[in-house]
Amino acid sequence: RCHHRSPAMLDVPFLPFCAFLGALGLLCVAMVGTWCQHWRGGFSLDGSSRTFNWHPVLMVTGLVVLYGAAALVYRIPNTWSGPKLPWKVLHGSLALGAFVLTVLGLAAVFCFHNSQGTPNMYSLHSWMGLGTVLLFSCQWVAGFGAFLLPWAPTWLRALYKPIHVFFGSTILMLSVASCVSGINEKLFFSLKNGTMAYKLLPAEAVFANTLGLLILIFGVLVVAALARPSWKRPDSDSLDSRQVQDVLGG
């Protein structure tokens, strides 16, 4: 009897979990903004290092936090009944907003490199980041064509859905890896030449390393939520879906 009750006792309701995840995402955005403002000189559009500072802020905000929010839309219990189109539009709009911020973040780093005469696309971080953005763009276009346009046949949607879900989680983890590697790369480049060495862990290094860990935790928790069976939206023709609709309908 205790063996059957223990999973229920350890079960975490979705909405409190989602609130915690939202607070964690906002903390990540606040910390990356604080890092760039306090230690990296703030923000500007003049092509200097302050222009570069838009890059980490926009990437963390768009490619990780906003993209994670878009991925969790269909885990909200309110989406399990009624018309699905408004939630599709919300999911696609959040993803599109994440993509716009990501493109602006790329523009910031390319503008900085070009103005300083720094080569583009030579590090593993840059390869991984650009590959993630390209995969993200393909994911959004394919999802728009398959799920939002009215002429996509049902069999095509059913065929593409598990692929869309798989690449959604994959893109998020690639985004996390890109952001964490970018933080580490920035610290290696910045904490030298008159500043305290990275290996001595100055305050900036501790702060930025903590930011990287929080971003990683955020991504892992989002993927865990996506993989949790009890939080998945039941298929419209499944027994679970009919039971949910009966309960919601009284």
Q: Would you give the CATH topology?
A: Four Helix Bundle (Hemerythrin (Met), subunit A)
CATH class: Mainly Alpha
Query: Uncertain segments of ≥5 residues (pLDDT<50)?
Result: 1-9, 237-250
**Main sheet overview:** none
Write a short abstract of this structure:
The protein has helices at residues 2-10, 14-38, 49-52, 54-71, 85-116, 124-148, 154-190, 203-227, 239-248. The chain has 250 residues and is an all-alpha fold. The protein is globular.
Topology:
Layout: H1 2-10, H2 14-38, H3 49-52, H4 54-71, H5 85-116, H6 124-148, H7 154-190, H8 203-227, H9 239-248
Helix pairs in contact: 2-4, 2-8, 4-5, 4-7, 4-8, 5-6, 6-7, 7-8
Question: How would you portray this structure in words?
Answer:
By secondary structure, the protein is mostly helical. It has a single domain, classed as Four Helix Bundle (Hemerythrin (Met), subunit A). Helix content is 74%, strand content 0%. The protein contains 9 helices and no strands. The chain has helices at 2-10, 14-38, 49-52, 54-71, 85-116, 124-148, 154-190, 203-227, 239-248. Helix 2 packs antiparallel against helix 8, helix 4 runs antiparallel to helix 5 and helix 7 packs antiparallel against helix 8. Residues 1-9 and 237-250 have low confidence and may be disordered. Homodimer. It catalyses: Fe(3+)(out) + L-ascorbate(in) = monodehydro-L-ascorbate radical(in) + Fe(2+)(out) + H(+). It is an enzyme of class 7 (translocase).
